[in-house]
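Q: Second attempt. The first request was missing the SMILES, so the protein and flavin-adenine dinucleotide are both included now.
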Amino acid sequence: MKVTMIAHTPNPDIVSAAAAKLTHSKTAPDELLNDEPEKMKKLLKSVVGMGHTSVIEHAYFTFSIEGISRACSHQLVRHRMASYSQQSQRYVSMDEPQYVIPPKIKANHKLKNAYDEAMHNIWGAYNALMKIGIPAEDARYILPNAAKTNIIMSMDGRALMNFFELRCCLHAQWEIRELASQMLHAVKEVAPAIFENAGPMCKTRGECMEKAKDCPNYPKAESRAKGD
Ligand SMILES: Cc1cc2nc3c(=O)[nH]c(=O)nc-3n(C[C@H](O)[C@H](O)[C@H](O)COP(=O)(O)OP(=O)(O)OC[C@H]3O[C@@H](n4cnc5c(N)ncnc54)[C@H](O)[C@@H]3O)c2cc1C
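A: Got both inputs this time. The predicted holo structure:
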């Protein structure tokens, strides 16, 4: 997959910090932007740390996501606090076999060959349907979850925090976890204060929603939650 942040709110840390400061200040909102940046970021971290995450809704981030599977994009679009534009299988010809191979299948030569063969059979059937005049909107029914897709997605800081909590978790499915981890890396570059403590729930809250006792982070998360 290729994940690129293509746009974001200018100065996301400072804009969010100004929103946080505004609530306790007589100063005009636009003047707050001129406060000392390091002080502003400290205030923001403290406010976000207390759970007042509405202030980071002012920061928006847009990603170009290329070459993920439809299995992954289906999980992605369950996150409703976001905007999406996805490549259409009605209007874009899918005639070339373009598919994701899960690492566990790729690692086994025999399995990978069988997988490739199944994919080529599927695309053979797709192209045969198209050739006899079946419209793409119907021929696509035969395409697999593995078929690659491209998406542009925009999310605000608060929705991203929730997304990272759920999808950076070691129990999240590997492909969406890889996507979330690349997105987290990208947002930390441009908004280090907002996302300083972003990550899976065991990191942000010291809790394990999955109750995943087989996870290497589990005992740490549970003892933090108990205050040990
Ligand atoms: C490990 C894992 C396994 C999963 N397995 C399954 C599965 O088997 N089957 C399945 O169907 N889904 C599954 N999901 C998807 C999951 O149930 C959520 O739909 C998905 O993670 C989106 O989360 P969200 O609703 O918090 O995000 P968003 O839709 O972005 O919402 C963000 C937050 O906004 C609030 N919100 C949004 N919409 C509403 C609303 N209508 N009413 C009230 N509050 C709202 C909530 O606080 C929510 O947490 C799984 C997710 C994970 C991480």
